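Progress note, sequence design subtask.
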């Protein structure tokens, strides 16, 4: 893949990974338009490295907040760790059978297929985008109609997001204090993330944040925890793609030239990092101002365009 294509994909990835519009769908459609196949091991690894760039953007953006809220004491860290662990466990319990089922469908009873084969199936991506759009639209409109949806929350913004296992706010009026992210929100967010892992177009941030809102959580807390979840699972995705590259090279009896494989990804990571910071500022602004549902409208439009591209033979 050429350097200019890598930069374009990195910018697209960085801007869309942290917005609820499905980065995978946008990157795959962009790659298709540039006649690049993202299902090859090297390009799948590149895609994961782009995700890594946005993961570092998340850490940079939320770091001070997470230190204050999650790392300031052992009790807070342990409570936060338990919630992230349960969410990740539920994601795995949903994702693994979903991946197995998709692999079986793609193989058509023949040779074993890989989930990465979905990278160029626009007819699968379009309905996933549409479902995510409907969920985002539902959650966004429901949140906008809440009586306290525009009330200033205690510690609103990104200076005071507090996540604990207790879902009740105890020391401030409901109109000014956001409820904690607890087991109900975490369970639904983990399950939805599990479905988002195999289905390209089913936006991970879109469905997890929407799920948290529908389960009674509030904007800044749900947003913070959603991105903490992705930071927790990204290293596993990187390790899986590194293994795929090694396995493909071993099957072909060829050595792996890691420098050549990883060098393009490093450039992409840097570009995706800065694009991701811009996207996070945009996302937080729209989420806190009650405009979340507009991302759902966009996903539905993107689904229509993706389906049109499929009908046109892309």
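Output:
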């Amino acid at each position: 893949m050429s350097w200019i294509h890598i930069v374009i994909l990195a910018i697209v990835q960085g801007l869309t990974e942290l917005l609820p519009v499905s980065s995978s769908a946008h990157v795959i459609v962009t790659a298709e338009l540039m006649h690049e196949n993202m299902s090859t091991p090297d390009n799948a690894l590149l895609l994961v490295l782009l995700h890594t760039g946005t993961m570092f953007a998340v850490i940079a953006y939320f770091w001070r907040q997470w230190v204050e809220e999650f790392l300031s004491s052992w009790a807070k860290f342990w409570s936060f760790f338990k919630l992230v662990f349960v969410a990740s466990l539920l994601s795995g319990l949903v994702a693994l059978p979903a991946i197995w089922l998709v692999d079986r469908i793609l193989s058509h009873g023949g040779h074993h297929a890989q989930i990465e084969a979905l990278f160029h199936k626009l007819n699968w991506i379009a309905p996933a985008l549409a479902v995510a759009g409907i969920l985002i639209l539902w959650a966004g409109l429901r949140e906008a109609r809440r009586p306290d949806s525009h009330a200033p929350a205690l510690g609103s913004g990104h200076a005071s997001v507090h996540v604990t296992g207790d879902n009740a706010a105890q020391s401030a009026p409901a109109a000014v204090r956001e409820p904690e992210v607890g087991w109900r929100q975490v369970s639904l967010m983990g399950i939805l993330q599990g479905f988002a892992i195999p289905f390209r177009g089913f936006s991970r941030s879109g469905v997890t944040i929407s799920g948290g809102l529908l389960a009674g959580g509030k904007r800044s807390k749900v947003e913070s925890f959603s991105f903490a979840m992705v930071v927790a699972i990204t290293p596993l995705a990187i390790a899986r793609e590194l293994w795929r590259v090694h396995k493909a090279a071993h099957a072909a009896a060829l050595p792996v030239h890691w420098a050549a494989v990883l060098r393009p990804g490093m450039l992409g990571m840097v570009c995706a990092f800065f694009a991701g910071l811009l996207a996070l500022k945009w996302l937080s602004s729209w989420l806190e101002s009650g405009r979340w549902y507009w991302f759902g409208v966009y996903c539905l439009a993107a689904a229509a365009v993706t389906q049109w591209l499929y009908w046109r033979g892309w």
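The chain has one domain: 3-311. Work on this subtask will continue into the next period as scheduled.
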